[in-house]
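Job type: complex structure
Entries:
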Amino acid sequence: MARVKFLCDADRCIECNACVTACKNEHEVPWGINRRRVVTINDGKPGERSVSMACMHCTDAPCAAVCPVSCFYTTADAVVLHSKDLCIGCGYCFYACPFGAPQYPKVGNFGSRGKMDKCTYCAGGPEEDFSTVEYEKYGSNRLAEGKLPLCAEMCSTKSLLAGDGEMIATIYKERVMKRGYGSGAWGWKTAYKETVAI
Amino acid sequence: MKAQFKTLVAALAILFASAMLPAAAQYNNFNPTKEAVQEDKLLQQLKEGDRLSGRITIPDPKAASLIQPQGQSWRDFHQNKLPTIGGVVLLGMLGALVLFFLVRGRIKVEHGFSGKTITRFASIDRFAHWMTAGCFIILALSGLNVSFGRMVILPFFGAETFAMISGYGKLAHNYLAFPFMAGVALMFLLWVKDNIPNKLDLEWLKQGGGLFVKGKHPAAGRFNAGQKGVFWIVITGGIAMSVTGWFLLFPYTAPDGVAGLQLFTTVHAVLSVVFIAAMLAHAYIGSVGMEGAFDAMGTGEVDVNWAKEHHALWVAEEQAKAASVPRNSVPAE
């Protein structure tokens, strides 16, 4: 089975935020929540790099480990998903996540956290595939249609790669070889405990 | 005219070319594309507790954080160290109390109950105590559920039932926090003047409070050193839990974002188990552990013999007060 990952080639990312917009539109993500975001390091200085960041779907996901109600599960493709029915909005997954992927609408008591929402790798949630409830809670399920996440599809420079981990690592390695430099597969060491050797 | 025009073009061309030369030389040894920031170098340079962040166009400033590696140490603390600390402290205290009961037994009133009582706690005292204590019990149980429920309770219930219990537990925890804080404040105002430590407490502590030897009753005022200890644990612990808890209730107001929240959850979790252990001991001695003790908070009226054995100086003060009042009143109804 494929073990899917995200790889953002920071040397190609032009900070156009197409990935951010595509995700937000496709899943009708509520106000105040951005499942994907583009962060620019060293803005304005030589060596400026932009990285598109969302849930990395880690091996040994810290969010899943700390959840008090154990609402996370990992699919056969290694996508880390969760159930909004079980989620109590405690915030622990956000404290543990190195990438800040979990986010919460401010609909809880005293305007605090509601149910957690995060990038689903366009794979929906525990509800039945393509059902209305699944769309309302988690957004569209592209993976069940055999499609890859929309953010990577919409990337204007093909810097954001999504798909089988081996495949995208190979693509990235080829690019680095061809152009002679690469700032690394951002987040891979933290998420997958391994990195792309360049 | 044509010749002048040609000269002008030539001059401009030379100017242009000479301007280019120094610029080209500048970039000979420096390729800005290759001088890219490397993720591993940046992560190595990060100090403890720092996060890697940059510039974003999304209006939420929290989104500017790219990687916060300290989430991994928080996870390790919460999943590994905290259960160990909790287990040792809570089970240790329970074990110690059971052992104490088996060895020392229930502390009896030596001279038996006299049948006469004296008022120890007025209605307001008992209200403050039970409001705080009742809230504490629910706060403790719901809090323990968040930290340890997944290990201890989830295996016995289905995922949906456990999530529902935990959801209601979290709501109870969030709402009862306020009457708890009010109760702690009220108890402080009511009892702080009788809980200032003094020399008598030192003597009481030296004699172990009379806990370990039958028949030993070191002198004490309204509150003995053990009770003063409980009071200050409740006040300081209560304040610490309230402050950390406040930021967990309103996480978007916490200073230093996620790092601040991680610190607050850690302090809140560790302090809570210590607090619960202390309250277990307090509840023990006030109920099972000592005959006649519960009446103080139960009805407010305690037996005079019990009071003379454990709070002799206070009884003397109260009787002196009653004697100075020119009324023919009996303390107990």
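Summary: Helices of chain A lie at 18-27, 62-66, 92-96, 132-138, 150-154, 165-179, 188-192. The domain at 4-60+119-192 of chain A is CATH 3.30.70.20 (Alpha-Beta Plaits).
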